Amino acid sequence: xxxxxxxxxxxxxxKPVVDRTPHATxxxxxIEKIFTVAMLFYSTSALLPLITGExxxxxxxxxxxxxxxxxxxxxxxxxxxxxxxWRSVRRGAWNAKWxxxxxxxxxxxxxxxxxxxxxxxxxxxxxxxTSFGIYFGSRFxxxxxxxxxxWTCALVVLTSCFMAIFLPQYGVDHHLFPGAWKGAFTxxxxxxxxxxxxxxxxxxxxxxxxWWVRWLGIAGALCLLVLSKSVTGIVVFAVMIxxxxxxxxxxSKLTVxxxxxxxxxxxxxxxxxxxxxxxxSLLEALHRDTTLTGRAQLWQAILLSIAKRPWLGYGFNAxxxxxxxxxxxxxxxxxxxxxxxxxxxxxxxxxxxLGLSILxxxxxxxxxxxxxxMRKTTGIVPIWLCTYLAFIFLSNLTESAIxxxxxxxxxxxxxxxxxxxxxxxxxxxxxQPLTIARDFS
Length: 441
Fold this sequence. Notes:
Layout: E1 12-14, H1 26-43, H2 48-52, H3 65-84, H4 86-95, H5 97-108, H6 116-139, H7 142-166, H8 168-171, H9 188-204, H10 211-227, H11 231-249, H12 254-285, H13 295-308, H14 325-333, H15 343-376, H16 381-395, H17 408-419, E2 423-425
Antiparallel strand pairs: 1-2
Helix pairs in contact: 1-3, 1-7, 3-6, 4-6, 5-6, 5-15, 6-17, 7-9, 7-10, 9-10, 9-11, 9-16, 11-16, 13-14, 13-15, 15-16, 16-17
């Protein structure tokens, strides 16, 4: 549990968001944690091929009855837990008001949607997903979140290995990218994103069993990342690892931080220029083209569609569902597509510049809060918050995980918004430093 070492009148103090109700017995809390792991595992979409009976993503046009019943059961239990912890969830919702506002705009977009009923159904499920993310960030301190995420990621790694080895008709791609591992997912890119997240979670978590469990998890996640043959996933993971030392630099003295920042900036500019000049050769060596597997052409076609309805978009999840403008995009790119392969473009298609502006404003505020914690606190918790904010940005450059229902990445973004706001500034003199003690006790 996060604690503070100063008085409550110190410049920053930790405001606990976990309320103690009569329901919070030891057995109840254990059941609550088990369900949270199960809910997080469900939100990864792992084992979806077994539930739907389909082995390729493009075969799915809508959910089936089994998937609907599983979803309903999970959210009924989730809303019960939210009701039990309503005080802490209410405070967490206030801290995540920018995210809630975006979710509410998605519901309101039913008014101008191309497919109002479809938008209403999807937006309500997405609102439930967002609510669970706020509950997760309100109910558990960050170290406990990482432990629960560690169990979740361990299940994802194990089930992905099992399906690729023993059920290759589901776990290995035989259509789009023959030989690439999909694990417990319907696409290799889904596996790679999950493995990048898993490796980061294992890196930050501190399992009670010891350090060897942590590094075994990292090794397993990286092996699956390589077997997925996803260049994007490998690049994202490399960038995340390279940025970790920069967060610690923010805690250094100015005499150290300024010159090191200048050197790092110059090195980044030089690396960027070198990468730009060598990009065609590098992509050719990786058996990729400069269109990013057709994404560049797709993005150009989508920008034309956005220009036709720029302010409010086509309604939440309605663009690819309804015939019309989406058919023009599919015809122009000459391949079947059900998403923009970019979270920011998908959001703009759904909610227009209004939705994109709300997202950007909230994201900038979260970075400000996380960096403030980085400068004024010790411990690894602020580094995790910054790392996840960077991860959610990078992962949405080529895939969509913004305002997505039943999606662990959106759940963690909502919980990050809550956790970055639990430290409330209080003026005092003289200032007393705040530390985060025993992050992983």
